[in-house]
Every structure is written in structure tokens, then in C-alpha cells.
Write a structure and sequence with these properties.
By secondary structure, this protein is an alpha+beta fold. About 30% of the residues lie in helices and about 30% in strands. It has 5 helices and 7 strands. It is globular, with a radius of gyration of 15 Å. The N and C termini lie close together (about 5 Å).
């Protein structure tokens, strides 16, 4: 990924967090977010996808082998963010679809992701796609608040894989 693309993707993360987690995470924490937090974290991610619309990076997702030691042999959709002005237009589904396809092509039939408990919009997307919530939770300290993430697992039998009409490309951010 070119440096200006990494900058744009980092700004996408800030705007997505500030809109998507408003009321779910402490406002002061969201106000302090900076693109620098993410800018360097995009390097060398082969399962990274950007969705562009009119020359703008409108969404980004990242898939990888499971980071959770308790889930060996699983794939993980690590991140999925879309600019707020593109919500409700199928961009999240398209990115999720590409991440799942990439993981399946890497040999992962079992896939999971984490969703913030109160993030109803994201949870609806994941459930519509075929992910099922589990009883696995992860308590996270965000600023001065403790929030709960819920693990979702993908049920291969309910695959929602579809052909995306959006321009998405694998961007090995290097």
C-alpha cells in the first residue's frame, strides 16, 4: 500500500470508530483517536482488503490466522471498518465476503471474529452473514471503561458467500 493510502486507511479507522462506537466507548477516548495509531499497523498484512468508491478508500478489512491461542487452526476476521457515509450500502458485507473467501482459500474452514457487545449494527451484519454468537467473551479496558467483546463463529453450512460488485483489492500493505 502506498503511503497516502495508508494515511487514508488510518483516517478511515478514526472516523469509523468515532461514529460506530459513539455511546459505546468513552467519548473522550474517541475524541483523542489519531490516524497515527493505525498508520504503521498496516504493514505486511496479506489478508488485508480495501474497498474503494470514486477513488476514496471507503472500507477496509483484515483477515489472518487466529491470534487466539485457544483457537488453533481457525481463521480470524480481525478488523472490518467502513466510513459512516457508506453504511447500509453493502460495503461491510462485501468486505466480510472477501475476508471469508481469503481465509477459506488459505485453508481455514473455521472462522471467528469479535464484536463489541453493544455494536448492534455490526452484530446484525455478522448474524445475517451466517456468524453465530458464542458464550466466549473478552473484557477490554478502553480508556476508563470496561467493555465486552463477543466471539462469533462462522457456520460454513450457512455460507453467505456472494459475488461482490464492489472494487475491492487485496492490499499487502508494504
Amino acid at each position: 500500500m502506498e503511503p497516502q493510502e495508508a494515511d487514508e486507511a488510518a483516517r478511515l479507522y478514526v472516523r469509523s470508530w468515532q461514529a460506530g462506537y459513539k455511546g459505546l466507548l468513552p467519548q473522550y477516548y474517541l475524541d483523542l483517536l489519531s490516524p497515527e495509531r493505525w498508520k504503521d499497523s498496516f504493514a505486511g498484512l496479506p489478508g488485508s482488503f480495501v474497498l474503494t468508491e470514486g477513488g476514496v478508500i471507503a472500507g477496509h478489512s483484515c483477515a489472518r490466522p487466529a491470534a487466539d491461542e485457544k483457537m488453533p487452526g481457525w481463521g480470524e476476521v480481525h478488523t472490518l471498518y467502513v466510513l459512516p457515509e457508506y453504511w447500509g450500502r453493502g460495503f461491510g458485507t462485501a468486505l466480510l465476503d472477501n475476508s471469508v473467501r481469503w481465509l477459506k482459500n488459505q485453508g481455514f474452514d473455521r472462522i471467528y471474529l469479535w464484536a463489541l457487545d453493544g455494536n448492534v449494527r455490526a452484530r446484525r451484519l455478522y448474524e445475517k452473514y451466517g456468524f453465530t454468537p458464542t458464550t466466549d467473551t473478552l473484557l477490554c479496558q478502553v480508556g476508563n471503561a470496561e467493555v465486552t467483546d463477543i466471539r462469533y463463529i462462522w457456520n460454513n453450512a450457512r455460507s453467505a458467500l456472494q459475488n461482490s460488485e464492489f472494487r475491492i483489492h487485496n492490499s499487502e500493505f508494504n
